[in-house]
Amino acid sequence: MNQAEAKVIVIGGGIIGCSIAYYLAKTGTETVVIEKGNRVGSEASWAAAGILACRASTRNPYAELCRYSLALYPTLAKELQTVTGINIEFIQSGVLCIFLTEDEKKNWEGLAQRRLKHGYSAEILSSEQVQTLEPSISKKVIGGVHFPEDAQVRNPRLVKALACAAAKLGTKFLTGHSVKQFLFDGNQVVGVETSEDRILGDQFVIAAGPWSHQVANFLGVALPIKPAKGQMIIAETVEPIINRPIHGLETYIVPRTDGKLWVGPTVEDVGFDDRTTLSGIHQILESAIQLVPALAEKTLLKTRAGLRPKGKGKPYLGRLTEYCNVIVASGHYKNGILLAPITGKLIAELITKDNTSLSLDPFG
Q1: How many C-beta atoms surround the C-beta of residue 195 within 10 A?
Q2: What is the pTM of this model?
Q3: Which domains does the chain have, with CATH numbers?
C-alpha cells in the first residue's frame, strides 16, 4: 500500500470540500482531497439549481452566514475565471417568487414586509406586474415577490473551477478513493487509510456530505446528518421563455445563458436511494408547467438526482470535541452552493490561523 503525507486531508470532493481546498491552496497549505467518486462534484453539487438566496428578515448567525457568503461570490467568480478560464456564470438576476393561493400570498408578502422593515430588499408585485415582468408565467398567478439581491451560479462549473484552481495552486485530488479508517498515534488522529493508500496528515476535514456521519463513525462520533434526495430536470428552449429564476409550488425554474432550463428539485426522505424516478420527475413537471405553461412543449434533455446532507437546520462547522485536529464542514442541506465560499474561507482560517473572521460557535 502506498503512503503519502499532507498538512491537511479533506475527505469529500463536493462543492464544500473543493471550496475548502481552494481557500487553503491560496494560503499555500499542502492539501489532499479524497473523493470516493470518479470525479469531484458528482453528487448533490451537480444536481442543484444553483440558486443563491438569502431571504431571512433577521440577523441571526445563520442568516448572517448566508449573507456573508453571497457577498463573496462576485470576487470569487472573477478569481476563478482569471485562474482557470472557467466562467461560473454568477448572475445577480434576482429571483421572482410567485403564488397561486391566498395563503401563499400572505406568507410571501409577510416575509417581504418584514425584510423591508429591517432594511432588506424585496418588491411586492401584483399579478399584472408579474405578467409584465415575465409574460410566460401562468395567468392563474395572483402576485409575486421579487428578491433583487438573489443570484444564480452554474454549479457544475463552479465545482470544476474550484477544483481546477486548487489543483493549479498545488492541491492533490485522489478520486475513486474511499476512506476505510483513521490512523491513530495514541488518542491523536495521524492519518487515514483509503481503498488505495495510507495518507498521513496534521489536520483533517470531514466534508463528505450525507456520508459525513459514516466517516465520523470511524472515530466513534455520532454526527446526526442524513441524506435528503433532490431530483432535477434539464430542459432546453430555442428562445428564452423567462428572464430570471422563478420560484413557486416548491419548485425553481432557472434559465441558463445557453438556453437550458434547470427545474426542480424534489425533497425526499428515502435514505441513500439516489435514483431518478417517474414520480419525482412527474412532480417537478406538474409544478413547473403550472407556473410556466409554455414549458410543456420544450425539450427534456436530462434528469438527475443528488443526496443533500440534512442536519439540524444549519451546518456543522468546527472542530470535533473528541479530536481537536478533526474538523467537520457538513450539513448544509439546501444551501451548499450558497454557503460554499464562506465555508471554504472560514475553515481555511480555522486551520491556518486557529481563528475565524466569523464565530463558528453557533454551528458546533
Answers
A1: 13
A2: 0.97
A3: 2-87+155-224+312-363 (3.50.50.60), 95-148 (no CATH), 226-310 (3.30.9.10)
